[in-house]
Amino acid sequence: MKRTFVAVGVVILILASVGFYFINEIRQREALRNIEVSVYDVAIESIGFTSATLKIKLKMFNPNSIPATLDRANYNLYGNDIYLGSGVIPTRVNIPAHSSTVVTTTFDLSYSGAAKVIWDALSTGKVIWKIKGTAYFDTPFGSISVPFER
Predict the structure, then answer these.
(1) pLDDT tens string for the chain (150 positions)?
(2) SS3 per-residue string spanning the chain
């Protein structure tokens, strides 16, 4: 009788722990809906004959009282409202509560698609960057997508 009571108690404790883990994971990913994404920096990593590789830093601010988790994202990049191409954030990013995290991703920029933006940068010294995409977070019940634009 005592063993049965202990066994039931252990099973309940294990189920409660697993349930708490899943609830916590879901809450962290739901917090992603409020994340504020901005382009923090864009730098040239390398230059080739037909393209350049850009290093794009995205600043992600979490205004929530719990950490947020981004499992992956894809995005389109625009310079002065001209489409330049797309990129991905393939790795998981944890963003602490009430904090910012800078995520670095690379982006291959084809010169043929960016001639106008390059000309604007050379003539005015200014490029207005815009990023538009979808962030994904995985739950035990499937993936949830959150569109963003900054």
Answers:
(1) 677 766 666 667 776 666 566 666 666 556 666 778 777 888 888 888 888 888 888 888 888 888 878 888 888 888 888 888 788 888 888 888 899 999 998 887 777 767 778 777 778 878 888 888 888 877 666 777 878 777
(2) CHHHHHHHHHHHHHHHHHHHHHHHHHHHHHHHHHCEEEEEEEEEEEECCCEEEEEEEEEEEECCCCCEEECEEEEEEEECCEEEEEEEECCCEEECCCEEEEEEEEEEEEHHHHHHHHHHHHHHCCCCEEEEEEEEEEECCEEEEEEEEC
Whether residue 125 is contained in a domain is answered as yes
pTM: 0.62
In a domain, 59, yes or no: no
Residue 102 lies in a domain: no
